[in-house]
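Please decode residue identities from the backbone states below.
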């Protein structure tokens, strides 16, 4: 990891800067590397790239790239990135677009900073001036360690307004480059997820865009081919956002008489508005298991999405650290077929 390009921005919402101290060193690495963007879909700013880098990207045909844009307005970009290099980032975005490199753009929505009319202007500019394959909008994540007073969480009103703005934009521009909202917007607005076909090829599913709809659709299709037994004896641990998805899933599958037993785990480790399952800590899960009242369950299922490729939670717990708390604990993959196999 020593030879990767590091991020030199000081973004107001940087999640790394909002982490608690004393976690494993790899969590504090901020990459801004175009090779990792091409190979793994990591989002980069383009702010730290020189002409030779841009020439290499175009010459090698490193397409598509995943780029954090956030705004096209210079003053807003200055406020977000907190570096003068944001101007170079936009120039580089233009160059690689003209060089035939396709771009999956990301916008982290910050209320009062790049939402509303500013967001609409950015979407229009991306559509008009750049080689955009997709643009994904995600709400700003704020942990309890945030010290930036400018950051405000996306509430239900902002979420609803943003959904309306994006729907109008996509209706206006019936082209291949479409704008997508992350699942959190629909959860925050308290409405259903768009239909499966609206996500096309799910170009930013790893960015949390369409993951819930894909899970619900796949689960529904697979469930109709199965018979379920002793569902009441199985407990599934999930996050606050995960519970919303399963509640939507349950309503769609009433005909199967599925009755999920959910234990919703609050993310006290990071706090703030962090409610995704993948960011649940081992400590919060263990604390919930120790509370008791679970004796009538035969299985306690925990999604293994809480672990990184090295098998660690965000706070360095391993599977054995959690499973030793209760011998009924088992870890299941995040795909519907994995969960259905256990149900």
């Amino acid at each position: 990891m020593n030879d990767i390009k590091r991020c030199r921005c000081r973004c107001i919402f940087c999640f790394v800067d909002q982490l608690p101290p004393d976690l494993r060193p790899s969590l504090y690495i901020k990459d801004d590397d175009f090779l990792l963007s091409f190979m793994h879909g990591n989002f980069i700013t383009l702010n730290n790239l020189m002409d030779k880098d841009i020439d290499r990207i175009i010459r090698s045909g490193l397409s598509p790239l995943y780029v954090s844009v956030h705004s096209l307005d210079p003053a807003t970009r200055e406020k977000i990135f907190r570096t003068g290099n944001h101007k170079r980032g936009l120039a580089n975005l233009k160059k690689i677009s003209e060089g035939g490199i396709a771009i999956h753009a990301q916008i982290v929505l910050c209320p009062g900073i790049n939402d509303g009319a500013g967001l609409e202007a950015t979407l229009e500019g991306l559509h008009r001036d750049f080689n955009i394959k997709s643009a994904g909008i995600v709400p700003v994540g704020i942990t309890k360690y945030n010290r930036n007073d400018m950051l405000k969480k996306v509430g239900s009103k902002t979420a609803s307004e943003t959904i309306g703005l994006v729907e109008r934009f996509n209706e206006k521009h019936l082209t291949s480059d479409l704008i997508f909202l992350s699942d959190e917007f629909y959860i925050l607005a308290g409405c259903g997820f768009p239909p499966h076909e609206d996500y096309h090829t799910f170009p930013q599913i790893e960015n949390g865009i369409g993951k819930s709809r894909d899970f619900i659709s796949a689960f529904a299709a697979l469930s109709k081919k199965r018979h379920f037994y002793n569902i009441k004896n199985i407990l599934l641990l999930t996050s606050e956002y995960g519970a919303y998805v399963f509640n939507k899933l349950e309503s769609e599958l009433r005909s199967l008489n599925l009755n999920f037993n959910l234990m919703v785990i609050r993310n006290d480790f990071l706090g703030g508005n962090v409610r995704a399952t993948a960011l649940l800590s081992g400590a919060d899960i263990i604390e919930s298991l120790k509370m008791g009242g679970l004796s009538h369950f035969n299985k306690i299922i925990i999604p293994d999405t809480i672990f990184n490729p090295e098998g660690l939670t965000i706070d360095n717990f391993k599977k054995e650290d959690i499973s030793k708390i209760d011998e009924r604990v088992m870890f299941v993959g995040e795909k519907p077929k994995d969960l259905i196999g256990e149900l």
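Observation: Residues 156-172 form the longest helix (17 residues).
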